[in-house]
Backbone:
C-alpha cells in the first residue's frame, strides 16, 4: 500500500513475495524453480526453528536476528481503564549488518511520484465545465 507523505506526495512501495523471490533467484542462477523453492523453504524453516529455540542468527554483512524477552506487566485497557495483566512474550530484533546498512544509506530519499489531481484538469478553451455546458 502506498504511504502518504506530508507534502501531498506518495511513495510507491513494492511488496516482494516469496514466489517473486524464488522466481528471481531461479532466473539468476539457472536452477529449477522447484529446487530454489525447496532450498529457500529449508532456510526459512531453519531460521524459524533456531529463533524459536532462543538462538541468535548472524548473516555476516547482512544482519543479526536475535530473540528479545519482554517481561510480564500490567497495562490499562484504554476503553474501560481497567488494569490488564500482559503475559511475558518473546519478540525478534533485527540489527542491520554493514553491507545492508550501506545499501540503506546509499539513497535516503524515497522515489516520490506526484499524486494525480483529477479535479485540476483544464479542458480546451480554458473552461472547467462539462461538455455541452456553458
Residues:
Amino acid at each position: 500500500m502506498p504511504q502518504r507523505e506530508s507534502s501531498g506526495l506518495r511513495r510507491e512501495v513494492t511488496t516482494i513475495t516469496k514466489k517473486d523471490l524464488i522466481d528471481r533467484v531461479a532466473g539468476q542462477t539457472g536452477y529449477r524453480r522447484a529446487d530454489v523453492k525447496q532450498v529457500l523453504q529449508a532456510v526459512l524453516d531453519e531460521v524459524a526453528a533456531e529463533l524459536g529455540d532462543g538462538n541468535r542468527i548472524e548473516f555476516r554483512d547482512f544482519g543479526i536476528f536475535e530473540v528479545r524477552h519482554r517481561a510480564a506487566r500490567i497495562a490499562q485497557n484504554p476503553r474501560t481503564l481497567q488494569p490488564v495483566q500482559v503475559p511475558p512474550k518473546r519478540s525478534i530484533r533485527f540489527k542491520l549488518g554493514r553491507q545492508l546498512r550501506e545499501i540503506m544509506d546509499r539513497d535516503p530519499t524515497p522515489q516520490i511520484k506526484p499524486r494525480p489531481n483529477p479535479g485540476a484538469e483544464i479542458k480546451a478553451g480554458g473552461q472547467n465545465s462539462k461538455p455541452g455546458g456553458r
